[in-house]
Amino acid sequence: DSGVTQTPKHLITATGQRVTLRCSPRSGDLSVYWYQQSLDQGLQFLIQYYNGEERAKGNILERFSAQQFPDLHSELNLSSLELGDSALYFCASSLTSTGFYYGYTFGSGTRLTVV
Amino acid sequence: DAKTTQPPSMDCAEGRAANLPCNHSTISGNEYVYWYRQIHSQGPQYIIHGLKNNETNEMASLIITEDRKSSTLILPHATLRDTAVYYCIVRPSSGNTPLVFGKGTRLSVIA
Q1: Following DSSP, what letter does each residue of B69-105 receive, concatenated?
Q2: Which of B53 and A81 is assigned the larger pLDDT?
Q3: pLDDT value of residue B2
Q4: Dihedral (CA of B60, B89, A56, A68) sign
Q5: A7 to chain B nearest CA, in Å?
Q6: Does A43 touch chain B (CB under 8 A)?
Q7: Quick one: which of A1, A3, A47, A53 has the most CB atoms within 10 Å?
Q8: What would the pLDDT profile of B25-56 be if each residue is shown by its tens digit?
Q9: pLDDT digits (tens, 9 = 90+) for B61-90
Q10: Is residue A56 within 8 angstroms of chain B, CB to CB?
Q11: Closest residue to B100, CB basis, from A2, A45, A48
């Protein structure tokens, strides 16, 4: 158990629907990062929040959005889902805004299947 | 724009040392070398990082060449549980650049 909690573990939904993935960071960590891993694209960075504010943005689609709440948990919202959005979605956390010295701690992921 | 080059796959006999190479010939002076691994569909796991000195922790050793253009991750006594994809990542020490994962090396430890 890494200390980063992601829910749900599995999610099956239909095209066009909207889903919310949740992440609770490791205790004491202020940064949350979201990554998408599909078979053909590998691990892709989506977005980072630090203490409630957006810090970095990667290849995140406009249909996707995220936020970090005052209790530091984060949610990734995926809307107008397409078959190609099927992937593993990982959340990671770090103590600082850079995660430089102690690295990122990853959760076990949410497997999203769009049918 | 790949900053690192790794072999796509490697095999290692159980109990032997696994030496995973990484080429980062364009590395800048303020960039560190990080290693993570991902065991089948689990979240990636931090292993070790370094700048120019060799580093060792309870999981592995990191050997960086003097010119810093390449490095080797060493798992001293590989076990079946070390079978995973290993990612070598170059990252600057300043700014807020997130970890960018490449394709990594798939290490298979064989009994």
Answers
A1: SEEEEEETT--GGG-EEEEEEEEESSS-PPP-----E
A2: A81
A3: 55
A4: negative
A5: 14
A6: yes
A7: A47
A8: 999 988 999 999 999 889 999 999 999 989 99
A9: 999 999 999 999 999 999 999 999 999 999
A10: yes
A11: A45
